[in-house]
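This part of the workshop introduces the protein records we will be handling. A record pairs a protein's sequence with a compact description of its fold. Backbone structure tokens are a discrete shorthand for how the chain folds in space. The question running through the whole workshop is how a given chain folds. The record below serves as our worked example for the rest of this section.
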Amino acid sequence: MAERAHSGVVKAGMDVRESLSPKQKGDWKDVALMSLSFAVYVYISQRIVCTYCAWVSMINH
């Protein structure tokens, strides 16, 4: 039973990966995923810098 559920989850994951993978370079899904990846990268970078600045500010006071 658990093995069948596991194989179902793996198959669903592979289907999602296949549907999200770009069919050709410059496909709209490719552009959307790259834009989303860049937005997440910028957001995380800003949070790291903000945390660092707050930490340094607390040390100096």
Remarks:
- The radius of gyration is 20 Å.
- The mean pLDDT is 82.
- Helices lie at 2-20, 28-60.
- The longest helix spans residues 28-60.
